[in-house]
Amino acid sequence: MASRKEPPGPASTVSSVATKARGKAAPGDSAVKQVQIDGLVVLKIIKHYQEEGQGNEVVQGVLLGLVVDDRLEITNCFPFPQHTEDDADFDEVQYQMEMMRSLRHVNIDHLHVGWYQSTYYGSFVTRALLDSQFSYQHAIEESVVLIYDPIKTAQGSLSLKAYRLTPKLMEVCKEKDFSPEALKKANVAFEHMFEEVPIIIKNSYLINVMLWELEKKSTVADKHELLSLASSNHLGKSLQLLMDRVDEMSQDIVKYNTYLRNTSKQQQQKHQYQQRRQQENLQRQSRGEPPLPEEDMSKLFKPPQPPARMDSLLIAGQINTYCQNIKEFTAQNLGKLFMAQALQEYSN
Amino acid sequence: MAAVSPSPAPAPAQDPDPVAVAAAPAPAAPSPAAAPPSAGSAPPAALPTAAPGPPGPAALPGPFPGGRVVRLHPVILASIVDSFERRNEGAARVIGTLLGTVDKHSVEVTNCFSVPHNESEDEVAVDMEFAKNMYELHKKVSPTEIILGWYATGHDITEHSVLIHEYYSREAHNPIHLTVDTSLQNGRMSIKAYLSAPMGVPGKTMGVMFTPLTVKYVYYDTERIGVDLIMKTCLSPSRVIGLSSDLQQVGAASARIQDTLSTVLQYAEDVLSGKVAADNTVGRFLMDLINQVPKISPEDFETMLNSNINDLLMVTYLANLTQSQIALNEKLLSL
């Protein structure tokens, strides 16, 4: 393995090792087809959120691992301290570098392969996430962001998803041009912003032995959250967030409509002005005077600024995620309700 | 209370060598009842006095009360096993620091990191700088965690352990020593925790004895769910599992309940047919179980069920509507 150059910035590790480890993927394809996570990483992420992340704060951390063929293996992770205002001299980059240097001493894979973040009810499609993931993916082709949803996990099943930006979106972000025309050209719809990569969890044999040992010594879990019927609270909150986003979306649409209306009004004005000009010129010609010079159209009529479309894309993506989550949730609950009905029928 | 000792070294403790205290191998006999002392008369006599009393001064707040419980999170074990798998060539075991919090009644270990060290026949070197650095870094993320002790893989406590323990007692009050037996002696991975207590003949060379503590596993709720999921890899042949989708999970949970129900049914049938003697407490639990299903009149239940189903269906419909709305919006924009 080639030695790794020390990165100057938080996400810009040299990807020389990564490129050696895999062949060149086809340009339209994504480089990573599957993400393989060690059990240890799952436990660490859960613990980090549990201890540091109560409330609406998101907790973040770095994922370490390596790339094998088209599979991204995540073998370890470490948490990032949260931003505190009173810690002005805290240097993120330095913390990261020190951590990775120390981990190298104990033979832990020190290749940066992504980052993880917790989310509140599924609201993670934000500008900040997009920027971070873009800089990660720009530096390391195969990086992913793992989104951990603690509230859904507390309801009974681990909710961990891996996302990457699609190549199309990467192109757009590289240009940094978010005007409507550019996005239309790139043909990016909100469904094509993030792609989800399937996750598998793998453990070594020794860890399996440890898990058997653990199972023998621990008491049986007596909470069965997954089958609980009390769901209205969760549903209510999700719907509330969805409604907020839809409101934002409608505002955005209104803005875009005004822009369109302004542009078309301006077009009309330009047209009228031109016509008037022509008429005047004709009159002058008929009177024998020199025609008026053509004036620069663009100076007279400044075109209105087209609104950046990236925000609305993000909102649309977020609404999409919310809707999908809600649908999953309702499907589960319907199943549970039917089971309760069966039980009740039987006991009557 | 069995005293655990490093068995390989038979060196007598009564050597009046002016060797550092911790360097003298703990001379305690393997079990209090049994063996004649390796050499000399001091150790067995010292045992009864040293063993039961909690280590006196300056320990964890108050003497370790109750059953001396160490509460362990599963993430620690996973970390330890992982660092054992990644050990350097030729290293027989790995060591590291344990971090956590101290409660009034117990000690909770929540984090750990491994520390590089070299061990040979006659000496041991621990990278203390590294340990300090890592602790500083960890403190930035979780400022409430303090150094509680250290861990080592392997099924025994050696003399080197004593030295390392000495170092850690400088860092923490009365450090805990955790061993994880990765060599799988007796076909089990035994996980044990110890506290150290000084022992020996006063005035002569003092030794160190490790007294065992009870280890309990504690989980956060989400941790429990995570561990349950990870445990499924034990059952798959390639040790790999994927994350399942929504309805599958409900199905899996209900399958579990079905299994437990069939066990209970089996028991009931056995009792009825006389194969197993009836146990009243179990019978009472069964009564409770049956009565858990609430007695609601069918009409009321119908209304409740229907209103719930209506709510859920409406929400699904609205979600679908919203999704088609934004898709439409996209289409219009790209015209």
Automatic annotation (TrEMBL), chain A:
GO terms for biological process: formation of cytoplasmic translation initiation complex; negative regulation of proteasomal ubiquitin-dependent protein catabolic process. InterPro entries: eIF3h, eIF3h_C, JAMM/MPN+_dom, JAMM_MPN+_peptidase_M67A, MPN. GO terms for molecular function: metal-dependent deubiquitinase activity; translation initiation factor activity. Keywords: Cytoplasm, Initiation factor, Protein biosynthesis. One of its GO terms (cellular component) is eukaryotic 43S preinitiation complex. Residues 1-25, 263-309 are annotated as: Disordered. CDD domains: MPN_eIF3h (cd08065). Residues 266-285 have a biased composition (Low complexity). It is found in: Cytoplasm. Residues 35-169 form the MPN domain. Pfam families: eIF3h_C, JAB. Belongs to the eIF-3 subunit H family. Component of the eukaryotic translation initiation factor 3 (eIF-3) complex, which is involved in protein synthesis of a specialized repertoire of mRNAs and, together with other initiation factors, stimulates binding of mRNA and methionyl-tRNAi to the 40S ribosome. The eIF-3 complex specifically targets and initiates translation of a subset of mRNAs involved in cell proliferation. Component of the eukaryotic translation initiation factor 3 (eIF-3) complex, which is composed of 13 subunits: EIF3A, EIF3B, EIF3C, EIF3D, EIF3E, EIF3F, EIF3G, EIF3H, EIF3I, EIF3J, EIF3K, EIF3L and EIF3M. This is Eukaryotic translation initiation factor 3 subunit H.
